[in-house]
């Protein structure tokens, strides 16, 4: 079986200038990422702000050109496709349903826009498809004529999901889809995304800073640090036995609701990762409690074992 | 000793009732968490307590006592003297509360010169001392920097140091870690916990995150639609949640290992109502599977245990009957 989506060596460099007369610096936002995902899978991508996870999402969506690398969907290279063909395969759901929906359009127009842009469906048929989709995401027919400002945050995110699915794409890239929502609404949206995936055999790339959310929805998890995946494994394996020290720190920082339990000491110190200044050797070594002398000079290769990939000298031993 | 005592606080903005008769007390050395979803009135409660409501907000209360004196009659000048001195507040986004045009040092010194009449030199020395006490290395360097030169975690540490400048008795923290990465969040929460223990602060911590509540709070008040619907010692409320909203909320949060793959999370249907003048009955009834006709009128405050109250007509053992 071939992968639904395959990303090979994706890289993105930005040039940034520090100050008015500063010298240009190179920011390696995404620094060589590869993965493949079977149809129906959910890859959860977790990491701190600035690790490059949203840049990765934007490259997969074709919103940012890659500096190098390639992306294939069902074996077809995306670089040879025009925007319409790409839109039929990959669709986004973004974090903030307040800014990602046009405030002057009705819900029906917003959800129908991807169909209209394809230009091959008569309006009556389009309308039918939109109404079907709205019902499928739990909105009623009278929501169709409303504008986003008349909807709650959860309802807006349902509109965004309907718009993403109306073309029946293969892949949905969800970038922090529940981060702006309250927990009771977050649960509704996560349940809806899980149902739709099973029903429509969708494949998700699900980007989040919230490990508990990722544990719930993902079949595989990739932990991203300064532009690279440092660990990638099936969800249950990763949560049961995290191998990379950074993965362990992230897991330790999840505050489960156990009354009286302490606030964990994550042990990452107070240096912060800076993508404009990636350290030599292992990029995580300045924050790693287990770093050895050679970690400062030797960039660890990714080691694959039993369905898991880890980039750490300790895991390779 | 009770540091803050709020009794029957109401806040309205025009026709909208944001806070509807809440009461709570915080003891010295205690953390009281106010938890709820957006729009429940938790931030408005904090702002009303500090006398910082936006224009158009109207506050009434039976009393609002700070260290025994009622603040509800104080004029703006007297409140300004208390704020930043005996009571301090930190917000979610430190960038909005720090002045981008001044260095960290001059902003911190300004507070001490105003409230404590210190000289500039003495104020800067005290500021450096406090930056060190909140875990900032090289405090001398940070004093000369502007807020935009600091990372999010550092800015929040600076905010905490500023709040502590005048040795407050009460610290109100409104979502202090929501804008931060989880790894930094843990560091900031540890810092708040340690300062609270060392200084005997009364801490009113406002958050939407039940994980933070569980680990930080001595007592918790759960807010919904402007009311406290359940309150008590944190272990009682988390281990024996009695209000249907509290139970629903606890079921909604994903916890690693709690729910098997493919099984949906618990969720609360519907959305938070907007409460207008003249509203009667339980604010949660439209989303509550236990609701009956009587919920449109009666919401008695009942005791689930000696020190554990909930605002609902259901008997305290209803969960056993429902199971």
Q: H/E series of chain A, N to C?
A: EEEHEEHEHHHEHEHEEHHEEH
Radius of gyration of chain A: 21 Å
- Physical arrangement of strands within the biggest beta sheet of chain B: 7-8-9-3-10-11-13-12
The largest sheet of chain B, given as strand count, sense and whether it forms a barrel, is: 8 strands, mixed
CATH superfamily of the largest domain in chain B: P-loop containing nucleotide triphosphate hydrolases
Number of strands of chain B: 13
Describe what this molecule looks like in 3D.
The complex is a heterodimer of chains A (317) and B (323). Chain A is of the alpha/beta class and 317 residues long. Chain A has one domain: P-loop containing nucleotide triphosphate hydrolases (Rossmann fold). Chain A has helices at residues 53-60, 83-89, 107-118, 123-136, 153-165, 183-200, 211-217, 235-240, 245-252, 313-316; strands at 5-17, 24-37, 42-46, 68-73, 76-77, 90-93, 171-175, 203-208, 220-225, 228-234, 303-305, 308-310. In chain A, the strands form 2 sheets. An 8-stranded mixed beta sheet of chain A has the order 6-7-8-3-9-10-12-11, with helices on both faces. In chain A, strands 2-1-4-5 form a 4-stranded antiparallel beta sheet. In chain A, a hairpin with a 2-residue loop joins β9 and β10 (228-234). With 323 residues, chain B is of the alpha/beta class. Chain B folds into 2 domains: 2-86 and 166-322, P-loop containing nucleotide triphosphate hydrolases (Rossmann fold, 3-Layer(aba) Sandwich), CATH 3.40.50.300; 97-164, no CATH class. Chain B contains 12 helices and 13 strands. Chain B has helices at 42-50, 76-82, 94-97, 104-116, 120-133, 139-143, 152-163, 182-199, 210-216, 234-239, 244-252, 318-322; strands spanning 2-13, 16-27, 31-35, 57-60, 63-66, 69-70, 87-90, 170-174, 202-207, 219-224, 227-233, 301-305, 308-311. An 8-stranded mixed beta sheet of chain B has the order 7-8-9-3-10-11-13-12, with helices on both faces. In chain B, strands 1, 2, 4, 5 and 6 form a 5-stranded antiparallel beta sheet that branches. At the A-B interface, α6, α7, α8 and α9 of A face α8, α9, α10 and α11 of B.
């Amino acid at each position: 079986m071939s992968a639904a989506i395959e990303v090979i060596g994706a890289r993105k460099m930005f040039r940034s200038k520090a100050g008015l007369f500063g010298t240009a610096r190179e920011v390696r936002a995404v620094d060589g990422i590869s993965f493949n995902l079977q149809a129906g899978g959910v890859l959860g991508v977790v990491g701190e702000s600035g690790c490059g996870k949203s840049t990765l999402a934007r490259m997969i969506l074709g919103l940012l050109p890659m500096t190098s690398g390639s992306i294939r969907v069902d074996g077809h290279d995306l670089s040879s496709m025009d925007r319409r063909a790409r839109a039929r395969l990959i669709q986004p759901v973004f974090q903030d349903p307040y800014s990602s929906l046009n405030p002057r359009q009705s819900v029906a127009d917003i959800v129908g826009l991807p169909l209209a842009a394809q230009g091959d469906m008569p309006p009556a048929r389009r309308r039918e498809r939109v109404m079907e989709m709205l019902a499928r995401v739990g909105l009623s027919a009278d929501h169709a004529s409303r504008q986003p400002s008349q909807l709650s945050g959860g309802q807006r995110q349902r509109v965004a999901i309907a718009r993403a699915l109306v073309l029946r794409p293969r892949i949905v890239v969800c970038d922090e889809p529940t981060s702006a929502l309250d927990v009771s609404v977050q649960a509704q949206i996560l349940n809806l995304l899980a149902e739709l995936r099973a029903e429509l055999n969708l494949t998700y790339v699900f980007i989040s800073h919230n490990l508990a959310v990722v544990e719930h929805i993902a079949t595989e998890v990739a932990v991203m640090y300064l532009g690279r995946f440092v660990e990638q494994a099936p969800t249950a394996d990763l949560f049961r036995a995290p191998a990379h020290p950074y993965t362990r720190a992230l897991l330790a920082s999840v505050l489960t609701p156990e009354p009286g339990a302490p606030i964990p000491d994550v042990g990452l110190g107070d240096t912060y990762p800076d993508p404009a200044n990636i350290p030599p050797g292992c990029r995580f070594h300045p924050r790693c409690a287990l770093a050895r002398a050679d970690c400062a000079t030797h960039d660890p290769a990714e080691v694959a074992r039993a369905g898991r990939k880890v980039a750490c000298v300790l895991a390779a031993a | 000793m009770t540091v803050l005592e709020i009794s029957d606080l109401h806040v309205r903005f025009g026709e909208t009732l944001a806070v509807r008769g809440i009461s709570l007390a915080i003891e010295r050395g205690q953390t009281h968490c106010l938890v709820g979803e957006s729009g429940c009135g938790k931030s408005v409660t904090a702002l009303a307590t500090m006398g910082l409501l936006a224009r158009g907000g109207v506050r009434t209360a039976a009393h609002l006592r700070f260290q025994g004196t009622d603040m509800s009659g104080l004029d703006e000048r007297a409140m300004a003297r208390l704020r930043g001195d005996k009571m301090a507040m930190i917000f979610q986004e430190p960038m909005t509360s720090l002045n981008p045009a001044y260095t960290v040092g001059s902003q911190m010194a300004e507070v001490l010169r105003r409230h404590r009449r210190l000289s500039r030199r003495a104020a800067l020395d005290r500021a450096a001392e406090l930056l060190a006490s909140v875990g900032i290395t090289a405090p001398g360097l940070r004093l000369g920097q502007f807020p935009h030169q600091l990372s999010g975690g550092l800015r929040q540490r600076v905010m905490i140091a500023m709040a502590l400048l005048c040795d407050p008795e009460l610290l109100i923290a409104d979502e202090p870690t929501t804008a931060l990465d989880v790894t930094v969040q843990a560091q900031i929460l540890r810092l708040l916990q340690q300062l609270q223990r060392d200084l005997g602060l009364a801490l009113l911590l406002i958050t939407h995150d039940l994980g933070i509540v569980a680990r930080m709070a001595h007592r918790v008040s759960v807010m919904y639609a402007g009311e406290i619907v359940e309150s008590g010692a944190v272990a009682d409320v988390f281990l024996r949640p009695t209000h249907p909203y509290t139970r629903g909320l606890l079921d909604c949060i994903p916890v690693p290992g709690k729910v098997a793959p493919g099984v949906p999370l618990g969720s609360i249907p519907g959305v938070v109502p907007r409460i207008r003048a003249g509203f009667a009955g339980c604010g949660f009834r439209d989303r509550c599977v236990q609701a009956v006709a009587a919920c449109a009128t009666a919401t008695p405050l009942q005791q689930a245990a000696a020190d554990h109250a909930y605002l609902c007509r259901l008997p305290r053992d209803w969960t056993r009957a429902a199971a």
